[in-house]
Write a structure and sequence with these properties.
Four Helix Bundle (Hemerythrin (Met), subunit A), 139 residues, 65% helix
C-alpha cells in the first residue's frame, strides 16, 4: 500500500505531462505564421519607404533590416523572397491612384494603399510560396 501511495503521484505527473506534449508540426506552423506576418510587415515598410524616399527619416530607418533578421528566410537561394517582395512592393507603390474625393485634389493615399497592399491576397500568396525557405530552428 505504501508503494502505491509513492508511485501514484509520479504516475499522475507522467500521465499529465505526456498529455501536454507539444506537437512539433503545431510549433512549426506557429513559427511559420509568425514569419509570414513579419514578411507582410517588411513589405509594408518597403512600400512606405518608397513613399518617403527623399525624407531623411525614412533613409535612416532600419526597420526593413530588422525584419530581414527576424524573418530568417534564406537569402542565399536563387529565388529570394526579399527581392520578390521588394519587386511586388514597387509594383504596388506604382499602382497607387489619386483619391477620387474632390476635397483631396487628386492627391494619393500612400500610407492607406501601402497598408492595404500589406494585407492583400497577392502578397500573402507570394509569401506562402516561400514557406519552404523559412529556416525554423526549434529548441
Amino acid at each position: 500500500m505504501r508503494k502505491i501511495n509513492i508511485i501514484m503521484p509520479f504516475m499522475s505527473i507522467l500521465l499529465f505531462t505526456a498529455g501536454c506534449k507539444v506537437n512539433k508540426s503545431d510549433t512549426n506552423e506557429t513559427v511559420l505564421k509568425e514569419r509570414r506576418q513579419w514578411m507582410k510587415e517588411y513589405a509594408l515598410c518597403n512600400c512606405v519607404s518608397l513613399v518617403g524616399k527623399q525624407d531623411t527619416v525614412f533613409r535612416n530607418d532600419i526597420s526593413q533590416s530588422v525584419y530581414v533578421e527576424i524573418t530568417d528566410y534564406s537569402r542565399n537561394s536563387e529565388k529570394n523572397i526579399y527581392n520578390a517582395v521588394d519587386s511586388l512592393s514597387y509594383k504596388a507603390f506604382h499602382r497607387i491612384t489619386p483619391a477620387q474625393i474632390a476635397d483631396y485634389e487628386g492627391k494619393k493615399p500612400y500610407i492607406k494603399s501601402c497598408i492595404e497592399f500589406s494585407q492583400s491576397k497577392e502578397l500573402d500568396s507570394l509569401i506562402r510560396s516561400y514557406d519552404a525557405q523559412v529556416q525554423i530552428a526549434l529548441q
